[in-house]
Specification:
324 residues, D-Maltodextrin-Binding Protein, domain 2, 3 domains, five-stranded mixed beta sheet, 14 strands, globular
Length: 324
């Protein structure tokens, strides 16, 4: 099988030109970016999309501040996972968003995490991650004190040591914590459900790279195909995702595999793709096995079976709950 793959790549390389290698920098940001073999879903999505376009990513893991410095200095070709800012857009070309970071409130067990907006956090100490491009969203909105830590892990330690009241954490990270570390989460944490801040995540490449524009176009096309064929869900280990897959301004629910469940899905992970946000965020239909259905009732009964969820999920330490 490996021999066939190598031969295919050699044939493809000669047919379409040399395989391009990109040196991409990221920091440790579980479960999105990390050193292998740890979970790194954003790196996996980006690598898969680039490889479909015969681009080989070389991932460099280092401190986030160094990632930004090396990008600006031209020591890196790009990054697999960045939030967009005007400053970064001055020298980087950004893809369409391929993930959506929805930041929710997390507190110690028993805390009130019902805040609906940042204004509800007045007087509270809230942990955020330093050097992340929160932009003006945290300025002037609230009288809360935003305390910068080097990572979500450091902020968790501060939270458990009563040094901060809350931390802003990505909802997808928390979803994996609840899946793999449910006992620890239930023991130590109170988790909010409201998204207090939403940022789109992008692949970016330096504008002065000779093939930058072409790589971005092909990357965007590859992501759209991955969403349509279910491989995107597969990498993120999500049963349903919500995306505007056909570019009509409406979002659809896309299923991984063919087991849709026995009831209309109550939740899904949103993906903004063709624009910064779809015109209409109400779900307009369902995609299953590449076919579109207008409503849940239109879906054939053969698909309405429970998804296979093994009871013995292997433990994975997304966060370390041990207090030093």
């Amino acid at each position: 099988m490996k021999l066939i793959t190598v031969l295919f790549l050699l044939i493809a390389s000669s047919a379409f030109g040399q395989i391009t290698t990109l040196k991409l920098g990221s920091d440790i940001w579980p479960p999105f970016t990390n050193e292998k073999p740890e979970m790194a879903f954003a790196l996996d999505v980006v690598s898969s999309a680039l490889e479909r376009s015969f681009v080989k990513p070389e991932i460099v893991i280092q401190d986030f501040e160094k990632v930004l410095d090396d990008l600006e200095a031209g020591k890196l070709d790009g990054s697999a996972a960045l939030w967009k800012t005007p400053e970064r857009e001055s020298f980087l070309l950004f893809s369409q968003p391929y993930l959506q970071n929805q930041l929710i409130l997390v507190g110690r067990k028993g805390s009130d995490v019902s805040a609906a907006t940042l204004n509800d956090l007045n007087g509270k100490k809230v942990g955020i991650v330093s050097n992340y491009a929160y932009g003006d969203d945290l300025k002037g909105e609230t009288a809360a004190s935003f305390i910068a830590g080097t990572s979500d892990q450091e902020n968790l330690e501060k939270l458990l040591e009563n040094e901060i009241d809350f931390m802003l954490v990505d909802a997808l990270l928390i979803q994996y914590v609840l899946r793999y570390q449910s006992e620890e989460a239930a023991r130590y944490l109170e988790i909010g459900t409201n998204s207090l801040l939403t940022k789109s995540l992008h692949f970016a490449i330096r504008k002065d790279h000779p093939d930058a524009a072409n790589i971005i176009v092909k990357f965007n096309e590859a992501i759209l195909k991955m969403i349509g064929d279910g491989s995107y869900n597969e990498i993120l280990q999500l049963n349903w995702i919500k995306a505007d897959v056909d570019g009509d301004g409406n979002v659809e629910l896309l299923l991984k595999g063919s087991a849709a469940g026995t009831q209309v899905p109550s939740g899904s992970y949103s993906v903004w793709f063709n624009s910064e946000q779809p015109t209409n965020t109400l779900t307009s239909g369902f995609y299953i096995d590449g076919k579109y259905y207008d409503s849940w009732n239109d879906i054939p009964s053969q698909y309405k079976t429970p998804p296979s969820n093994p009871l013995d999920v292997q433990p994975v330490n997304i966060l370390n709950f041990k207090i030093k």
